[in-house]
Amino acid sequence: MKRPVAAFAGLGTYSPGKILTNADFERMLDTSDTWIRERTGIRERHIAGPDETVAVMAREASLLALQEAGLAPTDLDGIIVSTATPDRPLPSAACDLQALLGATNAAAFDIGAACSGWLYALLVGESLLASGFAKRLLVVGSEKLSAITDYTDRSTAVLFGDGAGAAVLTASDGTRGIIAGHLKSDGRLAELLYRPGGGSVAPPSEQMLKDRSYFIKMAGREVFKSAVRSMADAADRALEQAGITGEQVDLMIPHQANIRIIEATAEHAHIPMERVFINVDRFGNTSSASIPLALDEARRAGLVKPGMTILLVAFGAGFTWGSILLRW
Ligand code: ACO
What we know:
Elements: E1 6-14, E2 19-21, H1 22-28, H2 33-40, E3 44-46, H3 54-69, E4 78-82, H4 93-101, E5 107-111, H5 117-131, E6 136-144, H6 154-157, E7 162-171, E8 177-185, E9 193-194, H7 206-211, E10 217-218, H8 220-242, E11 251-254, H9 259-268, H10 280-283, H11 290-300, E12 309-316, E13 320-327
Parallel strand pairs: 4-5, 4-6, 11-12
Antiparallel strand pairs: 1-7, 2-3, 6-7, 8-13, 9-10, 12-13
């Protein structure tokens, strides 16, 4: 097991107040509460209002994380934001967040790895700490999936929610922090989960509005199969690196996309469901905000204690997947 170089000094989250329930979807679409709960495990999701932008949600989460770390925004030397839904295509969400925080001493940039993005951002942050480039980093996942969700498409509309989570990452004391990490991608499968329109290949146009190609398109069943396979593999890789088995994991915090994907991952890794934190029922899939939202909720519920071994595992568009083992 490697000696950790990066540890969490603070954690904060933000969740919009507006809630969309399965009953709301029953009124909007040809769907049912039973179908949604049985196939996904989701009961409701938080939806951002017009003023709850990706940068604003990120700021709220970040201020809480900074407060816990006992740091001011000007103490930061780096800001990494993972998002698939930046407030605008240019500049980065991280620069927007930097301006809102007044974090004038930070280098700010985004990471695009969809639902695995927060894990990608944490491991990039760990490298920046290890190289000596940075000492105090903010690592944020902030998403407004509602802005790119087609609420006329029942196969995707019911899945997604909005929110943000932020961690302050600083040098480890050598006992706690990131003890293993694994990242992987397969771009050949990109078109199973993507937004065809709105980029430089298909810039905004009347046609794009007509064919609704700026919304998320997903081949659900294929994505499901890949997610199960890849999350299982990601869990294996982190456990192997640390030289431990699933039985030695105290808590698994998986990306919250679908309860059946989570159950399959836990079963594969030999981690009983009592040691898996679930909040997909109340948040839906919030992409790269999902793991920090779940970790923070688990912590506030008293489930996270010093010295615990925690497995984070994610899968997302790209496809991308990854895992991190934390010694808390
Ligand atoms: N309500 C009622 N029926 C529905 C709904 C709905 N909301 N959505 C789809 N159906 C219907 C389909 O039309 C289909 O009907 P048919 O048999 O008459 O054609 C039937 O249900 C089965 O559809 P499937 O897509 O095969 O259903 P499945 O059991 O695979 O569940 C789901 C669909 C929930 C989307 C599942 O495939 C899934 O979770 N996939 C992974 C999605 C995911 O996690 N994506 C994100 C991961 S990456 C990231 O987080 C960005």
